[in-house]
Amino acid sequence: MFEKLLSGGKLEKKVIESIKTHLKILCSATECFENSIITEQKEGTFCVSDLEREADSVRREIITTIHQGAFLPFIRPNICKFIEIVDEAFDILEDAAFEFRYVKDEIYKIIKNECIRVSKINSEMCKLLSIAFDAFIGKGDLKEKSLAIRIYEKQVDDLKFDISEKLRTVEIKDFWDGKTINDFVGYLTKISDLIEDASDYLYIIELSLR
Known about the structure:
By secondary structure, this protein is mainly α. The protein has a single domain, classed as Up-down Bundle (Methane Monooxygenase Hydroxylase, Chain G, domain 1), CATH 1.20.58. It is built from 7 helices and no strands. The chain starts with a helix and ends with a helix.
């Protein structure tokens, strides 16, 4: 697999190293957000925006290098698509961090435990995606990592249901309080969908190279 992907030299290696960096920054962003969720330090969520800007610079570098000729033409769109999915996960995480700063404390406390669990799972899924990418360019078992990510995503779906059930019992009098908590939960639980999509896409690329 690795030999097929390189097929050239320096440009491909540069892209692969940059993708590893991109994924590590996503892991740092999810961990930073998780810490803010646990401690309820809303100002701490600004680290997500800082890391998103750093990741955006790495993403542009990856795309530029690919357009400079890295990889065989047939695989370039697939690599770019994988990067776009990871980039969307960054965007949704940043949206979750933004909404969290406006969530009313008394409403958040009702679903705090579930939100912490979702946040922890998001962090674990990021780490697994990074490991899956290493397996993709090496000789590891990508299928096993993809399966583990799907199991995690199912757990987030279950937690989303639990959160919805709790919120249904809360009387919310202000429209914006309701919209903010709804958007926050929606963004928080969508991150796992995108990580699963990125993992699935990696597996599709691997199958296409066989």
